[in-house]
Design a protein that fits this description.
The complex is a heterodimer. Chain A has 5 helices and 4 strands; from the N terminus they run E-H-H-E-E-H-E-H-H. Chain A has a 3-stranded mixed β-sheet. In chain A, strand 3, helix 3 and strand 4 form a beta-alpha-beta unit. Chain A is globular. In chain B, the strands form 3 sheets. In chain B, strands 3-4-5-6 form a 4-stranded antiparallel β-sheet. Chain B has a two-stranded antiparallel sheet with strand order 1-2. Chain B is globular, with a radius of gyration of 14 Å. The two termini of chain B are about 20 Å apart. Classes of the chains: A alpha+beta, B alpha+beta. Strand 1 of chain A pairs antiparallel with strand 7 of chain B.
Chain lengths: ~180, ~130
């Protein structure tokens, strides 16, 4: 009867000097909301798979985290999201990559796993399949947040060839094409 | 990036990861999150894992599946396998990030080699923890 749930909201340079008590409270609340959503399902005898889906949907809906609403912007000013899910009981898995209109990409990953014989779908095809599978489709503007947009403008103003990793900006200002490190971005 | 792993009362494990990727990315770049075996993996015989970090390194290390394999084939504990991959091998390549994991017995690991990682867990015994920094 033992069960447990673990979540993350990203790793990186989370400087205490830049974290106000108000922001920390919001992040903590966001994590707590996701824990509660997943735990409620497990406590009622629900499956690990359903708990994972519920917890991630809460995090995707929270603009503080880099997934779903609040996702970072590409060089072209778009939000391109990826998601995956896997069921340990049968090794079934599903994932989507480069999607721009699926409100909760994790639901599309689940649809790929449950409703197709495939494991991964990308781009427009993934979006079409998600729509046909009943996932909620939104206008790409749904994902916009000013903080993420400003971050894109800042890095493009510095050097448009750089790519900023959200988990560690100090290491992630990748170098010019031709340099060894460029291939990683 | 966000992620979740869970163990239900029937002994089933599951893992999920979702991400917006990286700011200013180009050319349809995709990281580890949607790559089964790299950023996301679950197997009832071993563990469930969701990763967050510099995706290119996680893909090349086949991070999540490698931790599962270490447990299955080398009989390492979840903690030893995840520490080896995140705290040693990831850093040795120049990558950074973290992961969350749970094994079939309910043991939890949340290693990371960055300054912080938004993370939390809750258990059926009522134990709950929410952390950001080390």
């Amino acid at each position: 009867k033992k069960f447990a749930l673990v979540i993350h909201g990203g790793a990186g340079t989370i400087l205490k000097s830049q974290m106000t008590p108000e922001k920390e409270k919001l992040y903590t609340q966001g994590l707590n909301d996701a824990l509660t959503a997943g735990n409620d399902i497990l406590a009622k005898g629900g499956t690990a798979l359903d708990a994972v889906l519920a917890a991630i949907k809460v995090l995707e809906d929270n603009p503080l985290f880099n997934a779903g609403k609040g996702a970072v912007f590409t060089n072209e000013g778009r939000n391109e999201m990826d998601a995956a899910i896997m069921d340990g009981s049968n090794l079934k898995a599903g994932s989507v990559a480069g999607v721009t209109t699926i409100k909760n990409p994790i639901t599309a990953a689940r649809a790929v796993m449950d409703k197709s014989e495939h494991v991964m779908m990308t781009g427009k095809g993934a979006e079409k399949f998600a729509q046909q599978s009943g996932c909620t489709i939104v206008d790409p503007s749904y994902f916009f947040t000013k903080e993420r947009w400003d971050a894109l403008q800042k890095i493009k103003a510095e050097d448009s060839t750089k790519t900023l990793l959200d988990h560690d900006s100090s290491k992630a200002l990748l170098k010019q094409p031709g340099n060894r490190d460029y291939k990683y971005g | 990036t966000v992620g979740c792993v869970a163990l239900d009362m029937y002994g089933n494990l599951a893992a999920g990861t979702s991400t917006g990727g990286m700011t200013n990315k180009k050319f349809g770049r995709v990281g580890d999150a949607p790559i089964i075996g790299a950023g996301t993996y679950a197997n009832n015989a071993t563990c469930a894992i969701s990763c967050t970090g510099w995706g290119e390194f996680y893909i090349r290390l086949v991070m999540a599946k490698t931790i599962s394999d270490r447990m299955e084939l080398a009989h390492q504990s979840l903690k030893d396998a995840s520490d080896e991959m995140i705290m040693k091998q990831l850093g040795a390549l120049g990558g950074d990030g973290g992961m969350i994991a749970i094994d079939k017995d309910g043991n939890i690991a949340m290693p990371f080699n960055t300054e912080g990682m938004y993370r939390a867990y809750i258990t059926s015994e009522g134990k709950k923890e929410i952390k950001i920094y080390k």
